[in-house]
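Open question from group meeting: does this chain pack into something compact, or does most of it stay loose? Before anyone orders reagents, we agreed to write out a predicted structure and look at it together. Recording both the input and the output here so the notebook holds the full record.
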Amino acid sequence: MYWFLLLQFPAMIYQFLRWSNYDYVGGTLGWMMSGPISTLLYVISFYFMVRRWDKSLTYLENLKHNWMLIVCLMPSMLNETKISFIYILLYFVLLVPFGRNYLKRLVYVVPLGLVITVGAIAIYNKNFDNPYEEGRADKISIDEYVMGDDNIREAVLDGTMETVIPYVEEEAVDLARGIKLLAIPMVMSSEPHGWVVGFGPSQFKGNHVMAQSDFSKDLEWLLMGTTITVMMILIDLGLLGVVWMICYIMALFRAFRRVRKREMRITIFMLVIFLMVMFYMAMHQTIPLIIIFTFIIMLSSRWGLLKHVPVFSGWMLPPVKKYVCE
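Structure tokens returned:
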């Protein structure tokens, strides 16, 4: 996983220089993978940081000792994944070890995290431009990014999107996440079985075997472009799917069992990111992301099994004189 982090440097820098940022900067995962690759950068780096954490050192000394893991986060500023601003704040705040001095440590860690986040936003704003209009800085507001164009939003809420979509440019068919989430109650209520069992699995493929599904014919604009895990579960499986997902998360984090040795920093970090990503992208569609996600979550609830495993060291990461982060 460490070499995976390092490989993103040349890959993402080349993609940024060649195509600017946008979704083209997906690292070794490729085009349209800016969200998954940025998420993996923070998840893998955080895991190694906690794994190599030395209790005999202070917070800042540990950051200095593992400085390369922080540097590995920098490529996330080269694409258009704005959720990275939240990741980077969570990263530094949740690295604080839990204990009697936890609140005292937060007094200087939170301001540090905010300073780094503001710096990251400044770098992002300097690098971000519109790939469709060369030379023009694209300073879209957070409201426009989340909720989209006012006219399109009004068409969605009025239920007239089907008449508007033929006249919308192809690039604009990828509607903002906020618009799609606003449309969910209207879509789910369109059929008696909508909220209970959804409209059937695989709706986001748009067709069944040889023919396009009826749902896709009527609401193709909803299925195109950005997809979100929560939206996929509701449309495919309804509220029963939500119950299934809750059970899956509890089983994944071993909430049903009493775990003797759990690494709480990784557990909380992964849980928060997991829940955030469910409203940001379709994480289970990206195999490398979900495999590494699952692997690190499983390790966090089996931390005691690592007591005889040497702590990883590699290029620019000096050896740690211990076998496990206690």
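Observations to bring back to the group:
Strands lie at 207-208, 211-212.
The longest helix spans residues 102-127.
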